[in-house]
Write a structure and sequence with these properties.
This protein is an alpha+beta fold. The chain is 38% helix and 19% strand. The chain contains seven helices and nine strands. The two termini are 17 Å apart.
Length: 232
């Protein structure tokens, strides 16, 4: 999977804190002030994919980065910086490079004049997701799963979970918490939540012993649900 730009949103009003307190530049202050006059937001036109560095993939590094900056009246991004880090220097660098090379239709005021505004661009690097039928979930092998979650567990606190984990948990809670009438049972959802993390970690350990298998064949019963939703 070659990850790329997922979406394009206006930056929050507060300065970024990913790398500690940084004094706001005059250009950023002016861009924030322009938001009050904005009638049409900037629109992404073109730019390169944020390439997944092979060294990062082999090391199991993955996650989501958010790049903040200013889209100027010329449609180019300036003052790009990491607002949310993947905790991988290689992935953050790939996200920054893609953002800085992107071109936008600039924001415009009521008179149609192009104005500079602050923006945030999210990028996701994931082996469990991808383009094409079913995305990466139908091809997510156990050997990559082990690399990914060895890195994740060593890098993030125990209560931090990635998007693929949370997506699968959400599907599981909905599927297992429906009553015979099709209604959701909140008490059952709590039980699924408590049980899920233990089964997820057990599936990763099973993958360690059987690296050639697919993760959807190891994680039960959620794997079959993921296969169905992926069109497999």
């Amino acid at each position: 999977m070659v990850p790329g730009l997922l979406m394009f949103v206006l930056a929050a009003a507060a300065p970024d804190t990913a790398t500690g307190a940084v004094a706001e530049t005059a250009a950023m202050a002016a861009a924030r002030a322009n938001r009050a006059a904005m009638k049409a937001p900037p629109v992404f036109k073109s730019g390169p994919e944020a390439e997944f560095p092979e060294g990062a993939r082999e090391a199991g590094e993955f996650g989501k980065a958010i790049v903040s900056g200013i889209v100027g009246a010329d449609g180019r991004m300036t003052e790009a910086s990491i607002a949310l880090s993947t905790r991988s220097a290689r992935l953050d660098a790939a996200a920054l490079a893609a953002a800085q090379a992107s071109l936008f239709d600039p924001a415009r005021d009521a008179a149609g004049t192009a104005i500079a505004v602050p923006v945030r661009m999210p990028f996701e690097f994931s082996n469990a997701k991808g383009p094409g039928k079913g995305g990466g979930v139908l091809r997510y092998r156990c050997d990559q799963v082990v690399r990914d979650y060895d890195w994740w567990y060593a890098t993030w606190p125990a209560d931090a979970h990635d998007d693929f984990y949370l997506m699968t948990l959400g599907f599981s809670m909905i599927a297992k918490s429906r009553t015979a009438k099709g209604e959701l049972d909140p008490s059952a959802m709590g039980k699924v939540n408590r049980d899920f993390d233990e089964r997820w970690r057990a599936a990763v350990e099973t993958c360690r012993k059987t690296p050639e298998r697919l993760f959807i064949d190891v994680l039960k019963p959620e794997g079959e649900l993921l296969r169905h939703l992926g069109g497999g």
